[in-house]
Amino acid sequence: MNFAVGLSVLLSVIWAGNAFVPAANRLSSPSRFMAMSDESDAEQEAERLRNQAESLREQIRKMEEQMGPKRASNNNDQYIPKAREPEFPEDVGKSLRGKTVLVVGSNGRLGSMVTRYLLRNHPEVKEVVAAVHFVGQATSRGYGRLSYEVGAEDGVGTIGAAWSEDRNASFEYADYMKDYNLNKLRVMEVELLDPVQCMTLAEGVDSVIYCASDFDGNRPRAIASLNVAFLFRAIAAPTKGRVEIEGLTNILGALKVSNQNRIRIARMSGQEEGINEASTDNKPTSFVLVSSSPNALGNFETPFGEFNGLKRQGEGVVRDDFPSLTHSILQFGKFDDNFVEESLEIQVDSKNVLEPKELSKRRINRRDAARAAV
């Protein structure tokens, strides 16, 4: 009995003593040994990684010393193929590279061909602005000719049958149209007898090719096509509102103001190169006037005046009234697209050595005339 009580008291004392021992010290000897072993392995692994990192840093320092001061940057762009830039021949003389060209009268037979020639044969241009001129009111007359010449109608179109549910029409450009450069074409309507519209049209333009005319051949359009707007204007104001004179003057004045603004902006921004741009050899001719030879067509009396007299008066406006603009005046022979072949050599009589009778026999295909104008 006393032995059992003594043993119980001894166990109670031992249990009470262990209750106040920290948990870490209560581990058995094998567990305590395993914990110490894990800590030692972790320290060894950390030391190994530190040594490996130091070894890599040392290798990098040696590589940098071998490469010298010019270190190759880690630029992934060098592995990306760059877009191929179009290759243009080196500029020799006057150039249209990066220029904006305005074609006035682009809805005419010659103007539409000039627009086509610029887009197809001068892809280096920045933009070709095709100005469709009208009289009195806007009209779609002439858009079909311009659309046909530049190739805008060569795409693939589809339209649903009238009795089907799918009646939507679509039009897509074909791959072979990529050389048409239609992305560089901008079409604008303009009333040439309105100076304000001409000012807006000429903003940012580097060169102008003026093909607009009141005449179809040597006959006024009012008579040749029974155009009511032209006919009314000819009767109401026979000496005012002539595309050959007033329209021409408006475009010339607008181009002059545009050039002055460009120089003023360049001077204000301190860009001396922009101011001296007019003296560079590669700058294109500012203004090209398409006219007719004095002996190419017979004379014709109109309410506006004599046909040849109007043509010579317009040439005088370009030559005498705007001396700050470089210009070219082209007096073409009679246009003939039926019996004159295309791509013939263009003969120039700049010194007026040919007889009037000989000049009256000269003919030129409109596509060759477009080539000469550009």
Describe the structure using short key phrases.
42% helix; 374 residues; alpha/beta; 6-stranded parallel β-sheet
What does this structure look like?
Strand 10 and strand 11 form a beta hairpin. The N terminus is likely disordered. A six-stranded parallel β-sheet has the order 5-2-1-6-9-12, with helices on both faces. A two-stranded antiparallel sheet has the order 3-4. With 374 residues, it is an alpha/beta fold. It has twelve helices and 14 strands. The relative contact order is 0.09.
SSE order and pairing:
Layout: H1 2-19, H2 29-67, E1 100-104, H3 109-121, E2 127-133, H4 143-150, E3 156-159, E4 169-172, E5 185-190, H5 195-201, E6 207-210, E7 215-216, E8 219-220, H6 221-224, H7 228-236, H8 243-268, H9 272-275, E9 287-292, E10 301-302, E11 305-306, H10 307-321, E12 327-332, E13 334-335, H11 356-361, E14 363-364, H12 366-373
Parallel strand pairs: 1-2, 1-6, 2-5, 6-9, 9-12, 13-14
Antiparallel strand pairs: 3-4, 7-8, 10-11
Helix pairs in contact: 3-4, 3-12, 5-8, 8-10
